[in-house]
Fold:
Amino acid sequence: RGKRSGPIPEKLTEILELFDNMEGTEKMYYDEKKLRHKYKVEMPQMLRVRTYVVRGLNVSGVHAGFGNPYLYFKFGHEQKMLTDTKKISEANPRFFKTDEQDVMLPQQSKFEFGLYDSQGQEEDFGGLGNDELIGRSFIDLEDRFDSTNFKHYMKLNKVPIEYRPLKQDTDAGGTLCKGNLEMWVEILDATTAAERPVNPLVEPPAIEIELRVVVWTVRNLSLKLCTDENGLQEESINFRVRCQIDSSVYKGPENAKTQETDIHFGSTGEGEFNWRFVFSRIAVTTGVPVDCTLHFTIWKVSHEGVVTGTTRFMMCESNLETKSYCSKTAARSELVEVSEEIALQNTELTKLLEKEAAGLDEGDGATFADDDDESDSDEEGLERKSKEIPPAALMEVLLQAVPQSQASSSDHKVGVGREEPNRNPVLLHPKSGRGFREVFKETAALIDGVMEGFANGKRRCKILVALFLVIGVIALLHYIKKNDCPIIQANCEITCPTCKICRDKQDVKAGRLCYYGIVGVKSCIANPYCNIREAYGKCDEPSGNKQEQQEQCIAKPPDTTVIQTQT
Structure:
């Protein structure tokens, strides 16, 4: 009260100095008028909140595994269940959701958002009361709107993206992070909201890729597991290569997911194919992990092309991961090409080779997993030998990833296998494994034996061989047709004019008017299908008119062709 005489206390001096160093915003809290003006006049009572949610990251279900997440927003006590954003069994759901909401301050300043796990069926959402909360996060809208940094970013229209943790309360009283939401929030007053339109989020379109795989050759194919009916190892086999695509983003035809080469016959461990596999429409979307794997297998087949032989049909297999090539092609919009030699494996063959490398007897039933009594030195030696085990086969391939728009154009389209258009690269027909001797091994061996006997055998053998060849030629001539009869026979309709008048037209097609030329044309008179009267007894062209000519027939045929009498 009144004026104080004497020096100012030291403590009060420190407070005054602190107040003088404060910025304008901080001084406001010590000035009742400024504080009231800010929150009663300057602060709007209604704000426009725009929420942009891009996707969820590593979102788990309520309890375990994948859930069926969908978004929810809560402003104060007003809650919005965005069931249209539901995703089925997704760990990284892509929402691309834009929401706009008017809120009142301070009643709705607390913004709560998160994910619910739908417990309904796929075709509907069931009762929302059964859905459980996965996790949630909070934003104080009033504090954020009043933030100097946030106002700066809003003025530049460059609000930073946030990765908000989704936290779930635990029974122990703590919290558990169930994933994250990639999102950002804009807060505007009424004037700014009218001037700045909302920009809805749109999911970027997928870029389609076409994978082309050319199988050149297969080498060092092990035949140890290929046995015949007697359990003996086969010296040569017929085999083909199969390729199957395993990808959730493959949009091509279902019947093209598994493709096969032609058959290489009579292989002793080497194979030539020059065959192209084509897998179209692999959708690559920005920000979405690409899963695309090619599964190669080699199959032992019969001459007819079906899996046969021993009980082990698939000889070996390998996987080729292609997601990096697809991503590069989608990003660059250009061809990505790489050549590789793929090692194919067979677990059973590897165990067999490991046993042989370790010097174990195959029939003793010992396995490496059960050898607990081996010394450390033996285990190290076994591990060293296992690393030296060769693969079951080596396959040389060429992989091409092409943008689908380019691959479908007339100038760049290619065919499957060696079909047209055959280009980029041109695939030639294999020089081995497709000849007569490889396809028909037994027949070729028989012919070789006959020719060898004919060349080196005695006179009797040569005569028998010549006789068999003559019989074979005669039998073959019976299968070659001319004038509805085998080429080795004549036709009564042509050589016997009377038969042509009296015969039944259906008998010509049935081959009933055929005879061996060595017998003579008189056999046509005795042929019952010629319908010639026995009293007439000749094949000369009958004279007279139509009625007189038909008198030489036994019965009037259904359809008779009359030869005009010569004048």
Notes: Residues 459-477 form the longest helix (19 residues). The radius of gyration is 45 Å. The first strand starts at residue 46 and ends at 57.
